[in-house]
User: Fold these one by one.
Assistant:
Number 1:
Amino acid sequence: MKELAIEWRHYDKEGATCDRCAATGTTVSEVVAGLGEELAGKGITVTLTETKLPEELMAHSNMILFNGVPLEEVLENAAADENHCSSCSCLTGTETSCRTVEYEGKSYEEIPAELIRKAAYKAIGLNEE
């Protein structure tokens, strides 16, 4: 059986994360649940791992990996960037930037379901249905 391992990394401070990471986390959980059902019939198991990061690894926060490869490397025309995050700044007590994903000219602070699905299908070499 083939496996698609999805990992979501995010900053965590005493059980709290920033607003954009929380939104991405909800979305990735929902997408993975749907993918698990869709892909089971194709002999593919989908797993989700949540990795909580300390403040010193903030640059890796709000990152989604597909079989160990970041979303922005799986998708063509995608790149990682960052911008100011007031929610993380509140959590850390200092001015903080958070990761964003640029895809086809648009910047995303919260990674949308369609990008997660597109990257998942590409990571396993299937056309999205």
Note: The beta strands are 2-11, 44-53, 63-66, 69-70, 78-84, 97-103, 106-108.
Number 2:
Amino acid sequence: MPISEALRGRTVAVLGGTGPQGRGLARRFAAAGLDVVLGSRDADRAARTAEALPGRVRGATNAEAAAAGDIVVVAVPWDGHAELLTELAPALAGKIVVDCVNPLGFDKQGAYALTVAEGSAAQQAAAILTGSTVVGAFHNVSAVLLEDPDLDTVDTDVLVLGDDRTATDLVQDLAAAIPGVRGIYGGRLRNAHQVEAFTANLISVNRRYKAHAGLRITDV
């Protein structure tokens, strides 16, 4: 579907954009017609990744991407989450920050949710980025499907969590810019933990059934 009027003219930055999730989201946002800045610790790697993607995508450092984006998606590994956001807090002030990080551990039994002192990765982001509006979204979307250039649509819903209605509405629009995806309001940011943790269940489903399972909300 066409991007909403609320999204027109906005630049989306993806921090950690050279990883599978960030790269896949950047691909889909650019294909929808949005301007995308793909951030990385390594600017050259970001530039090479951006060149391989369709649409208006350019590579930059994470700091440059944070400064350039109107909406900034955080898709970095959990281990570096707090450190990066603390460093970039001044550049992210006044912006909508979309956190899609899942704090997960892995052992011989598979994936499991980690305990986060603030409650969730999204709440940690909000605690650090006091000058930003933090929204949680895109936690349960398969990077494999996002990155597949042969798939025109992605069959999934995206739960959007946050405390600011204008921001969650805009991020729902961002999700809906990806054909086949709906952005569904999933509650306040305090409810982000179970959405992040559910990714561990989806990983178990995918391993058992050799699939790329997503989430659909019925009767909405």
Note: The beta strands are 11-15, 35-40, 57-61, 71-74, 96-99, 104-107, 110-113, 133-136, 156-160, 181-185.
Number 3:
Amino acid sequence: MKGPITLKQAEDNWQTDIGAAFIGERVVYRGKDLFTELNDISWFKHFIFGITNKMFSDNEIKLMEKIWSLTISYPDPRIWNNRVAAITGTSRSTGALATAASTACSEANIYGTNAGYLAMDFIIRAKKAVDTNENLIDFTLEELKRKRSIRGYGRPLVKADERIAPILKEAKKLGLGDGPHLKLAFEIEKILTNSKYRLTLNAAGIDAALMADIGFTRQDHYYATILGFSAGILPCYIDSINQKEGAFFPLSCQRVNYTGKDSRDW
């Protein structure tokens, strides 16, 4: 239904099962009383429950926290989204604007939240293909031929991904490092490393497989990862704002390779 009738029905009337605050009385969060039913869970578990409407086990929550802390929260201002935070600090803007701008540019197909979404999309489709008796080698190489890349595999600059070993170690310690999507991710890696493409599993790929194994959807994974970079973003902003204004990676004019018109007199 569209038009004025839709607007009239929605005026002062928002139908939702997400939650509501009854000021002076109580807060309902996803159908549960915040102060009596959710009062003893961690903030992170609360956050994931808000996204998924599922109450994950403590070990599953710990795994998600490890994924965030070990694979996507580097406090290095040279990294593309952290650089935005550092530039915001060196220009003396606010921490909220630094976090918002850096988070917004974290939505990148190659490195950011969309890379995780696409990696999970691939591993879920690959699992379904195997479950319906499709040939995994054919499926993988056809995907690569059609899209010219497979999110979750390959990395610019270096071949190895230093994040794989520590996150896999933590997953195994939590009893969550043996799921079908994860096993499949490593089978696909063997196919790609034995082909002419030589692509190895990266952090986005292992994160997607681990999250798929505990029941996350593509969209859940995307939403949950949006704030995941913030533990690297804010330290870069704080570092920059505590140093001299305008001193973050300045570039002298002599280093600019200008190819436009010569200087002109007006």
Note: The chain has a mean pLDDT of 92.
